[in-house]
Amino acid sequence: MPVTVTRTTITTTTSLSSGLGSPTIVGSPRALTQPLGLLRLLQLLSTCVAFSLVASVGAWTGPMGNWSMFTWCFCFSVTLIILIVELCGLQTRFPLSWRNFPITYACYAALFCLSASIIYPTTYVQFLPHGRSRDHAIAATTFSCIACVAYATEVAWTRARPGEITGYMATVPGLLKVLETFVACVIFAFIGGPSLYQDKPALEWCVAVYSICFILAAVAILLNLGDCTNILPISFPSFLSGLALLSVLLYATAIVLWPLYQFSERHGGQPRRYSDVGCSHRHAYYVCDWDRRLAVAVLTAINLLAYLADLVYSARLVFVRV
Q: In degrees rounded to 5, what are phi and psi of residue 5?
C-alpha cells in the first residue's frame, strides 16, 4: 500500500528519483558519484573510523561502551550492504521493500549515532585518564557526530515531498514511527531493572503502555518493510489512525502516572535528587535510579508529542492501491 504526502498519494511504485532531483543510477559504479552515493560513502567512512579508533585502544568497556561500539559496527555493516545492493542493482532481489528500507534504516542510524555521540562521552570518555585512549575516544565521538549528521542528511534528502507518490516510511508519519520505537527502546533500557516500578500497579501500567505502543508501532513498520499491509483484517489507513489515537490516549495516562508516582512523596516517590543515595557519587558507566526516573519521564513526554504529531500528519495522507 503506497502513499503520498500532505493530501497526496502513497503508492507501491518505485520512484525514479533519489530525492535529490536527479535519476538514481543503479547497478553501476557511477552510483557512488551521485550525491546520495557520496553521502553513504561518508557514512561508511565515519562509522568505520569511529569503531576502529575505539577498538585500537580497547576503549569500550562497560555497557555504554558496548552500546557505542555496537552502534558504529551495525551502522557500518548495514550501510555497506546498501551500497553493495545499489552498486549491483539487486534491489528487486532484496528481501525487504527497497522503497521503504533505506530511509527507515537511515532514520534509525541517525538516532543510534546520536545516542552514541551523547552517551559515549558523558558516561565513558570523561572518566578516561588523559592519554592515547582518551584521545582516540574523543576522535571517535567526533566521527560519530559526523555519521549522525550524514544519516540525518540522507533522511532529509530522501523523505517524501508534498505531491510525491512514495512508500509510507518516507512520509512524516512513517519517520515518526521510527522515532517512537527508538524512544521506547531507550525507555526500556532505563527501566531494565524492575525496582523502578515493581509492586506499584500505576507504574506497572506505564510499563505496559510503553510495551503495547512499541509493539503496535513496530508491527506497522514491519508490515511496510515486508509489503504486507494487505494482510490486515482492516484497511491500513484505519489501522494507522487507530494506532495513533490509541497510543496518544495510553501515553496521556503514562505522562501523568509516571512522574506522579516517581516524584511525589505522597505516592512514595522521591521529589529531590539528593534523596537518592546512589546519585551522591559519580560513577563510570552508571546512571542512578533518580536520573533514570527523570529520563523516562522526559522520554514519555517526547513520545507523546511524537504520537500527537503522527495522529495529525496521518490524516493528511492519501493511500492508493497499485
A: -115, 140
Task: Give, for 9, the enclosing helix (H) or strand (E).
Answer: strand 8-10
Cell of 321: 492501491
Q: Report residue 187 CA to chain centroid gap.
A: 12
φ, ψ of residue 319 in degrees (nearest 5): -100, 140
3-state secondary structure of 253: helix
Better pLDDT: 13 or 214? 214
Q: What is the pLDDT of residues 298-312, one digit of tens each?
A: 999 999 999 999 999
* Maximum pairwise Cα distance, the chain: 66
Q: Which residue has the cell 503514562?
A: 254
Q: How far is CA 97 from CA 3, 14, 37, in A?
A: 14, 10, 19
Query: What is the model's pTM?
Result: 0.88
State the angle between helix axes of 172-190 and 289-314 in degrees (0 to 180), rounded to the nearest 10.
160
